[in-house]
Amino acid sequence: MTLTALSLTAVAASSDKSKSPTAISKPAKPITEWTCADYLDLQENYQPYAIGWATAYSKSGKPEDTAFDVQGIETIKPTLLEYCNRNLQASFWDKVKAEFKKYI
Whole-model pTM? Predict the structure, then answer.
């Protein structure tokens, strides 16, 4: 599980095209602390991974048993994009969890 967490952190950190991954001096914040702006800063092809990660982990970072698949991620992605574009400082993790609960 730790490798996956580090991988997503690296993805989030490397989404800023002005920085190289080696130039980053501190680790990115955990996904549970992301704002919608952090999510929107990801390259578009990494956004579904962030959604999947957020649905699979609790606020404390512990894995949760979920059956949310690619279709589920694609179902809530447009809602998340619309919401996040209007609410840049809102909690990305909280919105993902709220949308996730509608579909399980």
Answer: 0.68
